[in-house]
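Protocol step 4 of 6.
Sequence for Thiamine-monophosphate kinase (Pseudoalteromonas translucida) entered exactly as in the expression construct, tag removed. Do not edit the line below.
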Amino acid sequence: MCMKEFELINRYFKGRGITRRDVNLGIGDDCALVTVPQNCQLAITTDTLVAGVHFFDDIEPRALGHRALAVNLSDLAAMGAEPTWVSIALTLPSIDQQWIEELTDGMHEIAEYFNVQIIGGDTTQGPLSITICAKGTVPEGTALCRNGAKVGDWIFVTGPLGDAGLAIESRKQGLTIEPEHLKHIKKRLNFPTPRVAAGQVLRGLASSAIDISDGLLADLGHILNMSQVSATVNIESIPTSDAMKASLDFEQQLPFILNYGDDYELLYTVPDSNKSMLDVKLRQYGVEAICIGQIKSGEGQIDLLHKGEKFTFKHQGFEHFSKDLS
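Step 5 output, structure tokens:
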């Protein structure tokens, strides 16, 4: 018997996952009702993942469920927000009950880990896509934004870059990668870890922040443009994984660590006065404070250095509608 929309919602979403005390009315009505804590601001982000654009058509459904929520929670992390609630709009070509079960298992696993409740959404028939609207709270006046970087601030990242891009291109181009390294980069692509705890630690320490979704240089450019400053980045200071080092030489690594996105590490700037406190605070959550450069005066320029010398690299991060897909 063919399952229909409300049967799908009742079986795979309603009554599953955690129940937060601040949710007054969840799935089942025209709107959800929630209570926002006093003296907090509501942080809201929305991302759409489309088959063939943001993920391969044959991705494991559990990985897709995890990834769909993770990329939104990463946006909240970049603002220093505590994730609280998500709404999900799911478009499916047809209902495959085993596939849906695995997809929602992936969603509920990461939602429960971060104490997030799924409070509503929509289901419809059409080409496969998932749209998530994630909400979080942040103490009033403490949110991390892109426009706070100042001359002299240091530039940091929370972890290695380029693995997700390497996983994508290893499939597209048939790159030869050792099995253990291939397993690592595929996990980094399909099961990214949003740096939620790190983002909250950075409140009051960082002057600006963004998550690396479109590539290091592109996302750093967003901070520089909003803050009306420039930057110097030391290429050799950018962290990379053992898988990256073992698979590619230095020149081959550059497009992945500088251009590719989908790593969902945090990129942030810190005044010199707060630099010494970073490592102690972040290490409590298993995150290293990795300094890769410094903010300087200017209008959005990024100077790359390699072993102290200026390094030229043509860069362009991902941007929708920048290429003709026809």
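Step 6, annotate. Residues 317-326 have pLDDT under 50 and may be disordered.
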